[in-house]
Amino acid sequence: MSSVPLFALVGAGLFCIGLYALIVYAHLLRKILAINVMGSGVFLVLATLADRTVNAAPDPVPHAMIITGIVVAVATTAFALVLMLKVAEKTGRAELPDERTG
Amino acid sequence: MEALAATVSWDACLIVLPLLGAIACFAWPNAAKKLALGTALAVLVSIASLTIRVTAAGAFRHAVGAWGAPLGIELLVDGLSLVMLSATAIVGLAITIYSAGYFKADVSSRFWPLWLFLWASLNALFLSSDIFNLYVALELTGLAAVTLTALAGSADALTAAARYLLVSLLGSLTYLLGVALVYHGFGSVDMAVLAGRVESTPVFWAAFSLMFVGLALKTALFPFHFWLPPAHASAPAPVSAALSGLVIKASFYILMRLWFEIVPADYSTFTNFLGVLGAAAVVWGGLQALRAKRLKLLIAYSTIMQVGYLFLAFPLAVAAAWRGALYLILSHALAKSAMFLAAGNILYCAGHDRIESLDRIAQRLPMSLAAFAVAGVSIMGLPPSGGFIAKWLMVEAALKSGQWWWAVTLVLGSLFAAAYVFKVVGYAFTQAEAPHTSIDVPAAMEWAALALAVAAVLMGLIAPWILASMEIGRAFPGAAIP
Amino acid sequence: MDRLTLVLWIFDSVTGLGLLLLAGWALASPQLFRGIILFVAFSLMMSIAWVRIDAPDVALAEIAIGAGLTGALLLAALSRLGDSEPTQESMNRPIERSYRARTFRSLTASLLAAVAVALVFLILALPGDSEGLGAEVAASLDASGVSSPVTAVLLNFRGYDTLLELLVLLLALLGVWSLGGLPAQPVSPAVLVLDTLARILIPVLLLSSAYLLWAGTHAPGGAFQAGAVLGAAGVLLSLAGWQVRQRYTGVTLRLLLIAGPSLFLAFALYTIVAGQSLLEYPPQRAGVMIVLLEVAATLSIGTTLAALFVAEGPRNKEGQ
Amino acid sequence: MNASTALPLLILASSLLPGLVIFFLPESSIRIRTALNLFGAVTKLVLVAVMARGVLHGVDYEARMRLLPDLDLVLRADALSLLFVSLSSVLWLLTTVYAIGYLENSPHRSRFFGFFSLCVTATVGVAMAGNLITFLLFYELLTLTTYPLIVHRGTEVARLAGRSYLRYTIAGGALLLVGVVWLSTLFDTLEFAPGGFMAGTEAASRPGTLIVIFALLIAGLGVKAALVPLHGWLPKAMVAPAPVSALLHAVAVVKAGAFGIVRVVYDVYGIEFAANLGVTQPLVMVAAATILYASVRALFQDDLKRRLAYSTVSQVSYITLGIAMVGPIATIGGIVHIVHQGLMKIALFFCAGNLAETLDIHKVSDMDGVAHRMPWTMGAFTVGAFGMIGVPPLAGFISKWYLGTGALAAEQGWIVLVLVASSVLNAAYFLPIVHAAWFKTPKGKWQDKRDRQRLETRWMLLLPPMATALLVLAVGLLANMPLSPLEWARLITMTEYGP
Predict the structure, then answer these.
(1) Following CA atoms C174, C179, C183, C187 in sequence, which dihedral angle do they give, to the nearest 10 degrees?
(2) In sequence order, what E strands does D42-185 have?
(3) Cβ separation of A35 and B173 shorter than 8 Å?
(4) Distance between CA D398 and CA D474 in Å, rounded?
(5) A30, C66, C77, D377: which has the fewest Cβ within 10 Å?
(6) CATH of the domain at A79
(7) What is the pLDDT of residues C133-185, one digit of tens each?
(8) Do A50 and C132 touch (CB under 8 A)?
(9) Long-range contacts made by residues C35-42, C-beta under 8 angstroms, separation at least 24?
(10) Residue B482 has pLDDT above 50, yes or no
(11) Which residues, other chains included, contact D300 with Cβ-Cβ below 8 Å and sequence gap of 6+?
């Protein structure tokens, strides 16, 4: 399949877009979204390249790894969101101080 | 019984037992303290048995699920992992004993399962030989560390925890991207298999750079250190001890493993760059520690400085330097934990840790101040402490390889360390006005801090044994000392 | 290039471009609410991509977890954030426009663009003939006890990863609870509609969960997807204003949460004491054991995900 | 473990263990603490006597422990270490007695005596160190254990003095460390040996490197030995309680520095090798400059302890001067001065402490007529001061005689001028004190203090200065008797220069 590496390239793009947002935006919710986008990018790179050999079943190992990664991502996202709410509750804003250092 | 002891895989016990302990603590919060202490002892027995086995029979690999690499995951038990596991066990035991007195009832029931999770994940990490499994272990470690940091509950702690979480996730994702490229470049995630396949191609170096950046973030190498001081300074004291003493070492350990096992050759531009970052960390951490107004912040900056030392081993590139770095990891684990525990006692007693008001507290807690000072001996690298052995080995490596400027950095670091340690210790002797109202500190908490500190100093006296142990199964790379 | 290939290539390109655009749009959206909706759309499109790269298991996981649960979590968090942050403007504060801030942003952007270009070149440079572990998995599949390769990897070949991953999930919940949990979600006004919907959907979800679990041994599906669907059922119930009876929120809840990890660990402990390799299945009983583990894992995953959504602290006092 | 291994360890333990126990004693258990202190000090003295006897009979005392794969920690008793060990154990006993009397009723005595014992342990360790790394270990331990003694009073001045002390000594320690590590990369051994371990080795052909290392080592040691310009901490450290000052000046810190210089010049480089490298002459110059500069500074100090401090700076450099002049006679003078300066200076500090403790006198200008109130103390002071000036037959005379004749023998006549000038200056800053104390009419507030006791002050304060003053007299009078410090110094010099 000639199109296969394409999604790997998209994955790399997603990683960089997510990283940019993580660095530039101050709001924690946006940062959490950014981390998720980055994660998707990494998973795409991991999976896409598993499928390069023509006429053979795709390599299941990366798929299993991605499922692992997706579960880890949802777990950390859930925790991060609650942490964000607690930060907002204590400080009045869902942001981190001195953003520029990050 | 003996037959059982011979067949039991103690390495797996180091992972499974604390996990079971964590779950049991979660299921029966009322018994959590006893369960945790029991788990700590069980882990200690396991590490002792494992040490005996490895010392007698050498390093070995453990194929999880009996599949073996590259299909399955393998655990690797050699001197390097053994040394890390032992340090974790010793510091872990002290933290467990300390925490039994430190936390109030309501926080206590939340603390124990999280702490045992952290301990288990560190053990899992030090045992793994599979770079994807290491990713999962890293996530587990990071998440446990963040939840523990947030346990303090203050605005500072929550903000620091949020920042720490984001950095930690960013670090693991970057690392994972590197893993993805390695897998696709070389078709395996097992280090031993990769060692045979990896070539010095652009793909490999890109993958390694990604993994490196991810791990350096988690290790808080300058300039990725920004998240560390607030997190380590605002976490509960026993947590700070674990974070500074153990958690940041975990990512550095992976870095060391990768460097030893699969990185094909040394590139001096790259390693010199790492050395420069390390030197910058030494200077920056030292200056900030001197400026710090709060004790725990000072200790946190000291950690940044000590991390800087570790990265000097890359440009030194001789086996002695790596031995020194590993020795530093060990002695720093003990000494820094002792410092944080001592600071925790002060905080517990006085309700604050402002350095300029320490004189009022010092009189009430001479043992904790002594623990801080004794740990300081190792942090400063004065003989006969473990820190001294580390510094000796690294300075020797620097002079022997003709790179005297790294020796200057190391010595400069010691001077910084002396300055900030004595900035604190000086207050132990000044005459204080009438002391504040204060809370009595349980004796176990004071003893835990002092015991770790004394261990850090005495560690220097068993150096031949430790040095021989750390290279079981794998000699460190780089030229031997001529 | 035949026509089908061309069509697929165009389809893939559109999907890929769509992913990039949706991601950028979601992150840059001035309103967080819209950002989250766009993110959910992004996740759905991701699952299309997963199908296109022959990863149906991942596609299922992505729909259930990435789009469904993550979306629900994000929206719930946003609605709770509204309580503590009165002004919409402060929350969606436009990004700073000072000279320094702009310089910083453009520097970051150009640096990351360079990284992206480098990554693209590297990916293109990857060897095309790297085989991965497909062949090894296929060779050992018969001995694994299941016929779905992904499940074989997850539960058997790399079962240890999965154990740790279950623990990550549990740890996240512990973390949420250790933060003190959150106050109960305000019941939404549309509760009646939701309630009716829930009454219809819950049985469907439970059924799909069971199906996914059963299918996992030989086809796409498995404990994670099944657990995610189960969790979704819990989320739906919670949204509809259903409350779990107090007597089930103590020990019972805890036991459900730890069922999967505990069974896994008990198995691990057994192999340790028996002097075997860690998590080594007896070949003839591997299939049964994997199903058992999956059932327990599904229950725990579902409960944990639902509990993460509810995010109320544990009710220790009543529980004991 | 046999006796020859155990003895050095026991000597260390005799002060280490009591020290560690004392830390944990409650403030109020005075008797146990006193008993432990005296028991430790007496035990050490006895053990040292046993060891001295053994060394005379040719027993080789050595305890070894592996520190690094290629480095040992070594404790060994040779003639030079025995000289220093004996000095420290004798003076430790006396100082302990003095300190018990001096600190009666003051706070934090457990802490004080704990560190006091550790400090002596470190000194004894320095003395018995058999190689450079062992020396370094105890040298740094000495830094750490004296710091709490200097800041003991807990005042702001004390804190600042402590800080200054640390700045100098920690930096010095760092230089020393670099020097030692560097040497270890060049040579197979770091063990002290008569004649040094350098001559004839491969690395000996790198004079540039060796000179740099020598500078590093001397700079590191010179801090404690208070070589100008590294002496700044010493006058400030005067805020410490009198027994600490006494110990610091006579035995522990400055002497450890001077002793280290002896070790480096003789047992690391070897005197001939060092002379050929051309490093001894600069050392002589520095020592001479220190002697003159510090003597001049001493002239202008009105604070008695500060005057004594500058005097120490000057007198300790006699040791360096003697050993750096290449020649056996001067060397004898330098080495014997390790003992002589210790005895004289400790007597003077005990006396100064007595004046401060009994009559609250701190300034030279308040001392008029004080000898009438405290004749015994001032008697001891006078002996010490005359000794310093070099009046025969006191200890200082012996040292100066050997130094002077040694200088002539080494064909460095100008040093005699330095010695003469120094003696004149010594006289100039000591004689007025002695004169004022004995012959001037009493004045000052101290006269109001009632003389309540039969003795002029507590016996525990009086005995140590008397004893040391007697020793000052004895080592001078009996200099040619067997076992006198001078004879030991001769013995040591013989081994270094060969028969």
Answers:
(1) -50
(2) 62-68, 71-76
(3) yes
(4) 12
(5) A30
(6) 1.10.287.3510
(7) 888 898 999 888 888 999 999 999 999 999 999 999 999 999 999 998 777 66
(8) yes
(9) C35/A29, C35/A30, C35/A33, C36/A33, C36/C71, C36/C74, C36/C75, C36/C78, C39/A33, C39/A36, C39/A37, C39/C70, C39/C71, C39/C74, C40/C67, C40/C70, C40/C71, C42/A37, C42/A40
(10) no
(11) none
| CA distance linking residue B352 with residue C29, whole number of Å | 43
Domain that residue C205 falls in: 147-320
Q: Are D20 and D120 in contact (CB under 8 A)?
A: no
What pLDDT score was predicted for residue C316? Answer: 45
**Using an 8 Å Cβ cutoff, are C91 and A27 in contact?**
yes
CA distance B145 to B122: 10
Nearest CA in chain D to B385: D137
- Is the confidence at residue C222, as pLDDT, over 90? no
**pLDDT tens digit string along B314-341?**
998 888 999 999 999 999 999 999 999 9
- Chain B residues within 8 A of C160 when measuring between CB atoms: 64-65, 73, 133
Q: Are A96 and B159 in contact (CB under 8 A)?
A: yes
Backbone angles phi, psi at B63, to 5 degrees: -85, 110
Pairing outcome for strands B74-77 and B60-63? antiparallel
State the virtual CA torsion across C128, C130, C134, C135 in degrees, nearest 10: 120
| Per-residue pLDDT tens over the stretch C76-134 | 999 888 755 544 444 445 556 678 888 888 999 999 999 999 999 888 887 766 677 88
Q: Is residue C319 predicted with pLDDT exceeding 60?
A: no
> Total domain count for chain A?
1
Does residue A102 form part of some domain?
no
* Domains identified in chain C, total number: 1
CB contact under 8 Å between C150 and A64, yes or no, is yes
Q: What is the pLDDT of residue C189?
A: 60
Contact partners for chain A, using 3 or more CB pairs closer than 8 A, are B, C
Q: How far apart are CA D257 and CA B63, in angstroms?
A: 59
Looking at the predicted structure, is the pLDDT value of residue B119 above 80? yes
Q: Find the distance separating the first CA and the last CA of chain C, reported in whole Å.
A: 68
Report how far residue C229's alpha carbon sits from residue C67's, in angstroms, rounded to the nearest whole number: 12
Interface pTM (ipTM) of the complex? 0.92
pTM here is: 0.94
Q: Which residues in chain C are contacts of B4 at CB distance < 8 A?
A: 273
The range of the structural domain enclosing residue A32 comes to 4-94
Domains of chain D: which residue ranges?
336-499
Let me know if residue C308 belongs to a domain.
yes
Cross-strand partners of B130: B190
- Rounded-to-integer distance, Cα C223 and Cα C294, Å: 5
- For residues B223 and B234, give the distance between their C-alpha atoms in angstroms, rounded to a whole number: 21
Nearest CA in chain C to B147: C175
Residues belonging to chain B: 482
Residue A32 in any domain: the answer is: yes
Interface test with A, best of C58, C75, C164 (most A CBs within 10 A): C58
Pairing of the two strands B74-77 and D62-68: unpaired
Q: Please indicate, yes or no, if residue A75 is contained in any of the structural domains.
A: yes
CA distance readout (Å), B169 to A89, B37, C23, C98, D320: 23, 31, 18, 29, 62
The structure tokens listed for A54 are 């023509």
d(CA D233, CA D223): 9
Render pLDDT for D180-212 as a digit per residue (tens, 0 to 9): 999 999 998 999 998 889 888 888 888 999 999
Q: How far apart are CA B430 and CA C64, in angstroms?
A: 64
Token readout for D74 is 């070594």
C33–chain B Cβ distance below 8 A for any pair: no
- Closest chain D C-alpha to B290 CA, distance in angstroms: 14
- Asked, for residue C46, whether it belongs to a domain, the answer is no
What would the pLDDT profile of C4-51 be if each residue is shown by its tens digit? 888 888 999 999 999 999 999 999 998 899 999 999 999 999 999 999
